[in-house]
Amino acid sequence: MVRRSTAARGGPAEGGRDDAPDGPRVPDGARVLDGVRVLDGAHGRDGSHERDGSRGPDGSYGQDGSRGPGGLRGRDGVRGQDRPHVPDRSQVPDGSHVPDRAHGPDSSHGQDVDRRTPPGLLRTVDRALLVLLAFERNRSDWGVTEIAEEFGWDTSVAQRLLATLAGRGFLVSDPATRRYRIGPAAMRLGRLWDRSGTLELLARPVLDELCRRTGDHVLLCVPDNFHMRCVAAAEGRAGPLRYYPLVGELYPAHAGATSKSYFAFLPDERRHLLFRGRPMARFTERTVTDPDRLEQEFHQVRARGYAWTVGEYDTGVATVAVPFFLGREPYGSLSLGGPEEHFPDGPEDRLDALRQAARLLESRLTTPPRGTGRAPRK
Questions:
Q1: Nearest C-alpha neighbor of 89 from the set 20, 153, 136
Q2: For residue 371, is pLDDT > 70?
């Protein structure tokens, strides 16, 4: 028989309920003697005994199904005294545990994912979303133990999270390797995102402010096979560049800074597959169509972090562009353009504003501001 004080877990002294958002319920059959719960060799949820024959510190499971201290698993899913404590990585004060988001293959910088659950939100749901965000192009599959080690959770917590996501189709488990990959439900949401207009909604304040600061045309583009497709734009003070809307315009991958700023940051092998052997049209006398020369230019763009072209796609139009990222992946490009005579000293005086706008856009895409898209209260 194990006698544990309810104060050990910080739960309610009476009533048998943990009011944490994703907390458990005290098991039926627990007896209370003088404010102390008493359990006699209770089984775990799956019918198995705990280490000392009882459930957690007060006879109940902790959050996320984790167990209590003293050789059991704590609330953060980490074992207690029976092995060295592995801290929840979200608690590391300097954030050094968070993988750097590389600004392309050759450098890394800043939009870190905060792994701490914000106050008032459900920790179990937040952890499940963190698992989904761990999947990237250069890390397309994960095992249970790897997820547990990555986030500092117990393997049982990681297993339940992965199994739940797989049960709803957000992940798929390979029966041969027991590793998980992104599932069809995530693909359905991705397609919905492409058609939802949310990207334009989140980017609009950034584009308008950049246009106000520089007076130039501002374009936000995303890849579309061998092109970049404009999804949002702000018109500069010089008047329209086209006699038709810029949104929906396709820019070829090999011509102009808008495209080069994105394709330069793709992994070399992916870019080679796109460009090698593909016929490339010449739009002006300055359009580069030689693959070897293009590859040299891509490496130059990646080294300096931006692309600058004059008259490659439109005669007399100058453009400076930078990529923006989601995680470690380039997601699109943000560019400033206008008549060539508006850039007498090149792009240098606009780079700070352009880079700041790209970082702000990344921030809004990673952590959208609260209230975005909501109707105002009446």
A1: 153
A2: no
Give exposure, 11-32, as e/b (b: 16+ Cβ within 10 Å).
beeeebebebebbbebbeebee
Q: What is the rounded distance in angstroms from the CA atom of residue 178 to the CA atom of residue 142?
A: 9
| 49 DSSP β-pair partners | 43
The confidence band for 248, taking pLDDT boundaries of 50, 70 and 90, is confident
pTM of the entire predicted model? 0.61
β-pairing, 227-234 vs 2-5, is unpaired
* Sheet-wide strand order for 31-33: 2-5, 36-39, 31-33
- In order of start, what are the domains of the chain with their CATH numbers? 1-85 (no CATH), 117-190 (1.10.10.10), 197-366 (3.30.450.40)
Sheet architecture: strand order including 141-142: 141-142, 180-182, 171-173
Closest by alpha carbon to 227, among 333, 304, 121, 147? 333
Question: CA 104, CA 266: separation in Å to the nearest integer?
Answer: 7
Amino acid of residue 324: F
Return the C-alpha torsion angle 18, 20, 22, 23, nearest 10.
-20
Q: Phi/psi at 291 (nearest 5 deg)?
A: -60, -40
Q: Can you state the angle between helices 291-304 and 268-275, rounded to 10 degrees?
A: 150
